[in-house]
Amino acid sequence: MPERHAARRPDNVIPLREDVVAPVPGPAGPAPEPADWERRLAGGLAFLRRRITGDYPVDDFGFDADLTEHVLLPPLRPLYDTWFRVETRGLDNVPDTGAALVVANHSGTLPLDALMTAIALLDHHPASRHLRMLAADLVFALPVLAPLARKGGNTLACNADAERLLSGGELVGVWPEGFKGIGKPFRERYKLQRFGRGGFVSAALRTGAPIIPCSIVGAEETYPMLGNAKTLARLLGLPYLPITPTFPLLGPLGAVPLPSKWIIEFGEPIETASLGGAAAAEDPMLVFNLTDQVRETIQSTLYTLLMQRRSVFF
Questions:
Q1: How far apart are CA 199 and CA 91, in angstroms?
Q2: Disulfide check for 64: which of 97, 111, 151, 286 has CB 3.0–4.6 Å away?
């Protein structure tokens, strides 16, 4: 019989040792997370696409939440996080849903306290709530600021707009001291001015919305107002023209706020739903008493926070 020959192996093939196991391809690992700059770029491109296609909502007041979150508030966040180092307390007193009226003290020459409060509620509240602020008439008379204020969710400080927003389940912010608060001299810091006629209380009573007292410490020291150029202010149509340690001495640099340490505290809600609704809103004594209760609560909390504060700037 012919002799069988074993099949020859090519010379260039090296056999595997019996004790060596060839690796078996396993399932692919988790994809690496995108870098921060990649997320920012993707978010920016998505924002541009929405603006170009018009795929973003605007309510009857002109509020553009998409523009507010991606354009109007981001330049203010370094002030909140790094410059003022805002410490926020009592956010659990602000409801996750439904109407509520945030009532706060007003100070600081420029209304930065209102903007910082809005960032606190959007960035740090569990429900990321937008604060619909009631602003003075002057805001809507300025050519550039007026449309931006509307797009940022601000509306005129009047009962009709306040009631309409609260009836729609919005979180509304009001600063009843107005220009009397932010334009007061530094020697009167943290002393609340009059709260007007209690229009905000009437709006809360009519809609049954809870009132949340809000106390802000730190804003008084951002632009210490040492004087007021009243004559020039009247010529310019302004409620006041501040003289501070840096303005007008340092010119445009005087607009840079001092880096005071801020605390924003939201107090326990004051319930209004059981007080009588529209009938209660027509009772001047009830409105006055409730207004005074809110004011006293904010003033008392301010004194407490000031006693706890170790330093103006640290």
A1: 25
A2: 151
Sign of the C-alpha dihedral computed for residues 175, 180, 182 and 188 taken in this order? negative
N-terminal to C-terminal alpha carbon distance within the chain: 103
Asked whether residue 218 is assigned to any structural domain, the reply reads: yes
β pairing state of 242-243 and 227-228: antiparallel
How far is it, in rounded angstroms, from Cα 183 to Cα 227? 10
CATH number at residue 110: 3.40.1130.10
Q: How far apart are CA 290 and CA 94, in angstroms?
A: 19
Q: What is the mean pLDDT of each run of 10 residues along the chain (314 residues)?
A: 48 50 55 74 88 91 94 96 97 97 95 96 97 94 92 93 96 95 94 88 95 97 94 91 93 94 97 90 92 96 94 90
Domain range holding 74?
A: 62-222+257-308
| Buried-exposed string 224-236: b where 16+ CB fall within 10 A, e elsewhere | bbeebeeeeeeee
What's the chain's length in residues? Answer: 314
- Note the pTM of the prediction, 2 decimals: 0.85
